[in-house]
Amino acid sequence: MKKNLGPKLELYPTPVVVAGTFDGEGKPNLATLAWTGVCCSEPPMIQIAVRRSRYTHGAIVERKVFSLNIPSKKYLVETDYCGIVSGRDVDKFETAGLTFVRGEVVDVPLVQEFPVSMECRLFRTVELGSHDMFVGEIVAAWVESDVLHEGRPDVKKIDPPVFSPDGAYFGIGELLGPSFSVGKKLIKNR
Which phi and psi angles does 70 have, rounded to 5°? Predict the structure, then answer.
C-alpha cells in the first residue's frame, strides 16, 4: 500500500550536470545541478533550475548562455565540490584541478576532463518558486571519442553519477533492455 508523503520531490534518479558560465569580469565558474532534464527534441533543448541567489543564476541572466558538462563518476569529488562552494569566493576550476576550454559556438566554459559538454544558448526563463528554470537550446554537443559506440555516446562508458533527492549519488546500473522495444510484448497482433 502506498503512503502519501505530501508534495515532495520523489523523482529517482536525476542527472548530475555541471553548468559552466562566465561572470561579468569573464571569470569561468561551475555549478553542480541536479534539477535538470531534456525538454525538447527538435530543436534540442535542455532545462536547468537554479536558485536566484546563486552566482550562476546572475551569470546566465546577464550573458544568456551556459554550458552543461556531464562528469564521469571518477570526478565525483570535483563534481560535488562545485555544488558546495560559491564561485563568488573561489576559482572552482583551479581548486578542483579541472581544465577550462572555451566553447566554439557560444562563449561558455567547458570542462575538458568531463566526457560530454554541451554549449547552450538561453531560449527562455521561467520564474518558479525557489528556482528559475532556464531552457537552453543546445548549439553544440562535444563528446569524447572513447565514450562513443557506433557514433553515439555510450552511458556505460561515460559512467555518470546520478543523484537521489534523499541526498546521495549513485552509479548507472545494468542494462534492462532496449527502449521502444521491450514493451512491444504487450502489443496485440492486429
Answer: -105, 115
